[in-house]
UniProtKB/TrEMBL annotation:
GO terms for molecular function: glucose 1-dehydrogenase [NAD(P)+] activity. Keywords: Oxidoreductase. It comes from Spirosoma validum. Its EC number is 1.1.1.47. This is Glucose 1-dehydrogenase. Belongs to the short-chain dehydrogenases/reductases (SDR) family. PANTHER family: BLR0893 PROTEIN (PTHR24321:SF11), DEHYDROGENASES, SHORT CHAIN (PTHR24321).
Amino acid sequence: MPDFTNQVAFITGAGSGIGRATALAFAKAGARVVVAELNEVAGQETVDQIQQLGSEALFVSCDVAHADQINAAVQKTVDTYGRLDIGINNAGIGGKYARLTEQTNLDFEQMMAVNVGGVFYGMQAQIRQMLTQKDGDHPVRDHPARGKIVNVSSIAGVRGMPMGALYSASKHAVIGLTRTAALEYVRRHIRINAVCPVYTHSAMVDELVREVPDMEEKMRRRIPIGRLGEPEEIAQAILWLCSDDNDFVTGQAIQLDGGMTAG
Ligand SMILES: NC(=O)c1ccc[n+]([C@@H]2O[C@H](COP(=O)([O-])OP(=O)(O)OC[C@H]3O[C@@H](n4cnc5c(N)ncnc54)[C@H](O)[C@@H]3O)[C@@H](O)[C@H]2O)c1
C-alpha cells in the first residue's frame, strides 16, 4: 500500500460512495484528510469514521459549483494543515435519466455547474496552492511531484450513454480538463490524472436502480466481469495514481470498468 504519511489530501464529495471510500483509504495510508462536502451530516460522518481510525480529518462545508466556496475550502485546508499535496475532485451528480430532448436548460446548467465547474474550480484552487509549495524531498528523483490531482470522470466520459447525454458530456469535459491541465503543469511537477469508473455501488447508482426497473441486472450484463464495481476498488486506483512511486504517470484517464471498454 502506498504511504502518504504527512501528506494532506483534499477530497470533494467525500460524504458518500467513492469519495468516502477514498477518504478512508487515504487516512489508513497516513494522510490528513479534508472532507469538502455539500451534505454536512454525511461529511461529518466521514470525519468521525476517520477519527475512529486514529487519523486526522477536517470537515469543510463546500458546494463545488461555486468557485468562492472551493477557494475558501482550500484556504481552510492550508490554514489548518499548512499545505496541500493531493486534490481529488470527486463530487458529482448523475442527473436525470432521460433522452436528450427531455433534458431542460436547467438540467444542463446544473450538470455543468457541478460536474464540470467543480473540477475546473477545484483544480484552479489546488494548483494555485501547489505552485506556492516546494518540491518534496525524494531519495531517487530530483523533482518528485509537488502535487497530485485525480479527477473522477466515468466510463460515460469515454463513451456515449443513452439516457444520460448531459452526464456523458460533463464527464468527457472532465477528461479534457485533466489532459490539458496535466500538460500545462507537468514541468511544474504537478501530476494530474482522471479515473473513469463503470457502474459502482454508491448512493448515485442505488437511486438509478430504484428508478429504472431491472437496472442492476442490465448494468451487470454490460460489464464483462459480471458485477458492479465497489467504491473501495476505485479508491485503490486513486491512491495508486497519487503515489510518489508513480511520478511518470500524468494526463491519463484510467478506465476502471471490469473489462467493458476492452471489447
Ligand atoms: N457510482 C458510479 O457508478 C459512478 C461511475 C462513474 C463515475 N462516478 C462518479 O463518481 C463520483 C462520486 O459518485 P458516487 O457514485 O460516489 O456518488 P454519491 O452520490 O454516493 O456521492 C457523491 C457525493 O458528492 C456530494 N456532492 C454532490 N454535489 C455536490 C456539490 N455541488 N458540492 C459538494 N459535494 C457534492 C454528495 O453530497 C455526495 O456525498 C461522481 O463524480 C460520479 O459522477 C460514479
